[in-house]
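Final report, closing paragraph on structural work. Over the funding period we assembled a curated collection of sequence-structure pairs, and we close with a single example.
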Amino acid sequence: MKDTYIKVGFELLVSGQPVELVLKNLKQVMAKKRHASLWLSVLKGLLLLIESENLLALPSVVVAKEKDLVTEKINQLLQELSSETKDFTTTIDPTIVGGMKVSHNYRLIDKSHKTKLINLYQAIVSKTN
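Its predicted structure, as stored:
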């Protein structure tokens, strides 16, 4: 049973589905079928499978629009992440408003406008309380 959940989760991730959505839905299905006790072992299995398939080898760049792909900025952020490659995968996510997010080997540099706006909002709200 565990292997089936791992296989399905992996196939969904490889197809390009958002990680958060895949994990949320997988957890809901497992709970509905009363397999919630397998959740941690399924997560570990998924991680091992992803690592063995080397899907984490390439850095990932998320931008709001294709025109936001600025190679100089990306290469600078890749250096900060100690990436040995200049190749990367790209995802277009309009919800980040602008800027970019670069991740590699479980590390993330978030230069998105969305995060900046959220931080500004939280700073304003916390000062008014």
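The chain has a mean pLDDT of 91. The beta strands are 60-63, 89-92, 100-104, 107-110. We thank the funder for supporting this effort.
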